[in-house]
Structure formats: C-alpha cells, structure tokens
Amino acid sequence: MSLFTAVEMAPRDPILGLNEQFAADTNPNKVNLGVGVYFDDNGKLPLLQCVQAAEKTMMSAPTARGYLPIDGIVAYDNAVKALVFGADSEPVASGRVATVQAIGGTGGLKIGADFLKKVSPNAKVLISDPSWENHRALFTNAGFEVDTYAYYDAEKRGVNFEGFLASLNAAAAGTIVVLHACCHNPTGYDITAAQWDQVIAAVKAKGLTPFLDMAYQGFGHGIAEDGAVIGKFVAAGLTFFVSTSFSKSFSLYGERVGGLSVLCKDKEEAGRVLSQLKIVIRTNYSNPPIHGGAVVAAVLGNPELRALWEKELAEMRVRIKAMRQKLVDGLKAAGVKQDMSFITTQIGMFSYSGLSKDQMVRLRNEFGVYGTDTGRMCVAALNSKNIDYVCQAIAKVV
Ligand code: PMP
Question: Where is the Aminotransferase class I/classII large domain (predicted)?
Fold first, then answer.
C-alpha cells in the first residue's frame, strides 16, 4: 500500500502521444502533420535570424541572472501591449491595459483563468466546438464548468455562423467566451470582419466576458491584419482578456514566451487587476524566466530586428499559403475527385481535411502520414519534398 496505490494512469496527451508513435515509426517516408509546429521547406524547425542576432548581442555583454519582477520584463510587457493593441492606441496611451509576461500562451491562458475564478467564480466558460484540446482542460482545472459554442460546420466546410451567434445569444450574462483571435485551431476557418462585428455586438448585448486567444498573430493575413480584431473589441468599449504566444511567430516553442493582457476600464482599475495577476503568478511559479522574454523584447524594441522579424514571419506565412495551394493541386493530380479547394479558404497552420478517423488511421498505419484522428493536418509541416508523397497517400485512402 502506498499513497499512490489508487492513482489512475491518465490518458496520454493525444498530440504528444502521436509524436511518440511517429518517433517510433520506421517508415523512411514518414511525415508528421500532427503537432502544430512550423517547419521550413527542408523540414527543419527554423531558428530565426532576428532571434540569432538578438542572442548574439546579448551574449556579447552577458548579464547576471537575478529574479525578474513578478510580471516579467518591463520592456517585454510594453512590447506585448504595443503588438496586441497598437503602439499608439488609446488603451496603451491611457495605461488601462494590465500585461504580464507568461510561460507561453498556455501560461497566459492559465493566469487569466485563475484570476477569473477569483472575480467570477460561478461563471461558465464557453469554448468553440471544436477547439484547441487544452482550452477545455485548462479552464476545467481552473475550476470552471466548460461548455461549447457552435463553430464548425462539417457539411458546409466552414463556420456555422448562425449557430455560433445563437450560442452566444443563449449564454447567461457573465459567461466567459474563449475566442480564437485568428487562425482557428484546429479547423483553420476564421470568421470575417463583418461577422466579428456581429459577435462583438452579441457579446456586448449579453454581457459576456471575452477571452481572446492569440497564438498565431502574423500567421493569418499579417501582424496588423490579424491584430485588427482586438481594435474592434476596443472600439466596442468592452473590457476583455488577450493571451499572446510567441511560440510560433518567433519559432521559440521551448523558451515558453507568452503573455496575458487585460483591458480594463481605466488606469486605476488596471493597477488593481495587475496586482491580482501578480498574486496568481507569485503563488504558482513566483516570476518568469528571462531568456525568451529578453530575446523577444530585444527584437521588438529594435527597428532593424523588428523589420527582420516581420520579414521572416511573412516568409513563414507565405510558405504555408503556397503549401495549401500545392496540396489542393497535388490532390487533384493524384486523382482525388472531390473538390479540395476548401483547403485554400482555411488560414493559419492547420487544415481540417474532412478525412474520417478511419482514413486518418490508415494514413498513419499504411503510409506513415500522421495527423490527428479528427482529420486535422498541420499544413506548416508540408514541404516541397514530402507534398507529393502526402497527396498520393491521401488519394489512396479517400
Ligand atoms: N492557444 C492555441 C489555440 C494554440 O494552438 C496554442 C499552441 N498550440 C496555444 C494556445 C499555446 O501556445 P504555447 O505553446 O505558447 O503555450
């Protein structure tokens, strides 16, 4: 008998489990389209030039590693605010945004969830159906009841927008709604600017609490274009949460660089909110690590490096779009009869391919092509060397 005798084995994380299976696969042609990571055309995880340049400068004048403030590097937090809300925006100028450095986008969501549990303990949380796997688990573990709002329409291959609005209109006041700011994960379907206006109107009319998850800023249409949705929420006079991740946009996955911003009514309120966010951080991990935040702050704070980052991010964005087109063309050439052009109407890293679980299992077992059972494929892992093989494999299972 031990303290842990009754401890049950937890299920494996579906995506990380897929990675393990991929690593063990001996098929020389295997392709991993499971995990949401951007690879370059050589199938390599990029180390961005802007990151290398910033690190070189940092290494030429090494500094001692004291504790950071609880809310992180000041220059970093300011850079996040400027990126999310706009450097010259009213919320930044008036000081009514409370921003903290976080351990990745996940950390930003978690700090927000724990804070919300204190201020709105009985609220329900709505996430999209489907959503990033961790949204449900994270808000459930923070103590919330989590439900979904309608989002994906499999038949239409797009967003069930009427259902989405109906879900919002049926929600009780105070309900926390987790929204994908851009590049919806897992479907790849975003709503239009005009539809955002309707969502915002519903959120406002019903008194819901928006929590925007911005894990892919710059992977959709551009940094400012993807951030425009934030401006819409500001213009509507709402207060809301935004989590930020630099995992993908800086290819800094393992450095765990992210943030949480809370737009408050005024500067005084932002000060009180910030003090509470700091309590959440202090009692979880005390203060964030230095390196990733310092790199991002150095890049965003230096005009030349910032321009280089924008160029490198644009290259990633453009390459993904090119791969979408190649996938559509390649599937046609491989003999797939059904119209697959919907893949180019999707945006960001992922494509909901519409393939069934059986088809995804066959892709994996017979061809070593790994996507999730839901049919999600990471388009950002396709390249000029593996695309033909993937297209032929898909053609054989559909
Ligand atoms: N939100 C969404 C929608 C994501 O796809 C991800 C990353 N897969 C995250 C948040 C978390 O990002 P991070 O790795 O920076 O914690």
Answer: 29-394
132 is catalytic: yes
Which tokens is 194 given?
A: 């005009």
Q: Which residues of the chain fall below pLDDT 70?
A: none
**CA dihedral in degrees (168, 173, 178, 179; nearest 10)?**
50
The CATH 3.90.1150.10 domain(s) of the chain lie at: 14-46+313-397
Separation CA 249–CA 299 (nearest Å): 12
pLDDT of residue 17: 84
Give the pair of three-digit tokens for residue 203. Answer: 């959120």
Q: Do β-strands 209-214 and 176-180 pair in parallel, antiparallel, or remain unpaired? A: parallel
Q: In the annotation, is 337 catalytic?
A: no
Q: Kindly list the distances between the CA atom of residue 290 and the CA atoms of 65, 112, 192, 226, 274, in Å, as whole numbers in the listed order.
A: 8, 21, 37, 27, 20
Report percent pLDDT > 90 for the chain. 97
Strand ordering across the sheet containing 124-129: 97-103, 257-263, 240-245, 209-214, 176-180, 124-129, 145-150
Predicted pLDDT of residue 38 = 97
Helix (H) or strand (E) holding 324: helix 303-333
What confidence score (pLDDT) does residue 14 get?
Answer: 78
Give the pTM: 0.97
State which of 101, 106, 109 you would mutate to test the pocket of ligand 1, scoring each by most atoms of that ligand within 8 A of its C-beta: 106
Topology, domain 14-46+313-397 = Aspartate Aminotransferase, domain 1 (3.90.1150)
Name the residue with the closest Cα to ligand 1, atom 7: 215
Pocket of ligand 1 (CB under 6 A): 36, 104-106, 132, 180, 185, 213, 215, 245, 247, 258
Q: Where in the chain is the domain with CATH 3.40.640.10?
A: 67-301
Indicate the fold that domain 67-301 takes in CATH.
Aspartate Aminotransferase; domain 2 (3.40.640)
- 58-80 pLDDT, tens digit per residue, is 999 999 999 999 999 999 999 99
Q: Give me the interface pTM, i.e. the ipTM.
A: 0.99
pLDDT of residue 231: 97
